[in-house]
Each structure stands twice: as C-alpha cells, then as structure tokens.
Write a structure and sequence with these properties.
Length: 271
C-alpha cells in the first residue's frame, strides 16, 4: 500500500518543533521526501532524526524565512538535489502578544516579517518550481486569530488575517494561469506547542481576559488551561491534529479544495 503523498517532495518551514515537526513526520510517513527548514539547528536535527526513525526521508537546511536571498538558495537546492517540488507548507511563525498601544515598531515589524513576508517569499519562489514539477499544493498556516480578533493579540491577528486573504488571492492567480497549484490556509485553534512559552511574560497582563483566560500570576501561557476555559471541546489540540489537515490538503483527496480555509479549532469559532 502506497502512502497518500508517495514520491512527492515537500518543503516545510518552521519545522524544528510543533506543527512544522508534526507535518514533517506525517507527510514523511505517507511517502513524501520532506525538506525541513528552520533557524533552530538543534530542533531541526531532532525533527530529521524523528522522521528517519519512523522510516521516512528528510533533509534539512538552515533557513531565515525573512531573507529573500535565502529563499532563492533553498529552492535552488531543492531543484538541484530533488529535481522537483510538489508541496509547500509555509509554517514558520511567531506570536508577540501585548497591548497594541504599547507594542514597539520593532516587534510589529519582526512579526510581520516572519509571519507575512516569509509566506510571501515562499509563494513567490516555490510555486514556480511546483508548477514546473507538474503541480501540487501550497498550505499556508494561519490561525483562528486570522478569522477573528483577540485582545492583546492585535499585531498577531493582523499577520494571520493577511495570510488568509493572501492565500485566496494567490489561489486565484494560480488558477487563472493554469499552474495546477492549489493554495489553501489552515487555521489552528489552541494547539499544545512551544509557541505559548515564547510569548513574552509581560504580554500576559494585556492578554488577561475572559477570552484568553490567563490566570493571575502566570509566568507563561498554559495552552491546556486556556483550552479548558475557552474551547468548547475543553482541551488543546496537538500538532498531529493539524498535521492530519495538512496531509489532506497536500494529497489528491483535496483536489477540488482551493482558496479555502481549513479550521481546526475544537469549535472555538463556531460560536
């Protein structure tokens, strides 16, 4: 029995942990060769090891997604080493919380550069190779924060909303050009990943509300406590839950899904 993405080449950014790592493991288990990238060398090496221990094939590259020159190099390396590209998962991202009235322009710009510019560069440089390889699928990781606002996360919401509409516009461009490349976005809810530990401690004050339910005195955001208070199903999702959606969008099972949002959020946005 062959895998659902057997023989395909997949590029996954931000793959050193969390959703990116989950996507790499899942796509590789279903037959793809995964090219994983990140700025975190140690985490990336661990992802490669996990893929290989599961019987999959993975190669890695150091990758700052805000550098257009590095995107040129990554795509050129895939063309030279793999000869093709069929799947792009634009996953690299950060979350900087805090009141928009106190956010520095440097933090605003850094978040925009990683979460929006990184997706733009990926689409710009990878889609031509995907089209030349016979077509395929682009999966841009947005968030439920790209569908609705959240106090203390205005800057983050701005980036994820941008990814949502950018995805739709690119899907239309690819369809109009007969490129045979589908482009969709995935919108995770509260997922148990390391991103929650990276939101600065000082941001928790501005984010303390019924919406986010951050307890007084918390030094970091506990996604499970957050989910218990604010997610209808009562628990946080796992990277594997998002990876399953990514696999669907990467496979031929979603051949008629294009320019759409796949929301995986435990019914957060259902009310």
């Amino acid at each position: 029995m062959t895998g659902r993405v057997q023989g395909r080449i997949a590029l996954i950014t931000g793959a050193s942990s969390g959703i990116g790592r989950g996507a790499a493991i899942t796509l590789a288990a279903e037959g793809a060769t995964v090219v994983v990238t990140d700025i975190d060398a140690a985490g990336l090496a661990e992802t490669v090891d996990l893929v290989r221990r599961g019987g999959g094939t993975a190669v890695s590259h150091a990758h700052d997604v805000t550098s257009e020159a590095r995107w040129h190099e990554i795509v050129a390396a895939i063309r030279a080493e793999q000869g093709a590209l069929h799947i792009l998962v634009n996953n690299a991202g950060i979350g900087i919380g805090g009141s928009i009235f106190e956010m520095s322009h440097a933090d605003w710009s850094r978040q925009q550069a990683i979460n929006v510019d990184g997706v733009f560069f990926g689409v710009k440089h990878a889609i031509p190779l995907i089209a030349a390889s016979g077509g395929g699928s682009v999966i841009n990781i947005s968030s439920v924060a790209g569908l609705r606002g959240a106090p203390g996360l205005a800057g983050y919401c701005a980036t994820k909303g941008a990814v949502r509409l950018f995805t739709k516009a690119v899907a239309l461009e690819c369809a109009a050009a007969n490129m045979n490349v589908r482009v969709n976005s995935v919108h995770p809810g509260i997922i148990d990943t390391a991103i929650w530990q990276k939101i600065p401690q000082e941001a928790t004050g501005a984010m303390r509300s019924q919406t986010l339910a951050i307890p007084e005195g918390a030094n970091a955001i506990d996604p499970n406590a957050l989910a218990a208070a604010g997610v209808p199903v009562g628990y946080a999702g796992l990277p594997a839950d998002i990876a399953a959606g990514i696999l669907f969008l990467a496979s031929d099972e979603s051949r008629y899904v294009n320019g759409s949002e796949l929301v995986i959020d435990g019914a957060m946005t259902a009310r």
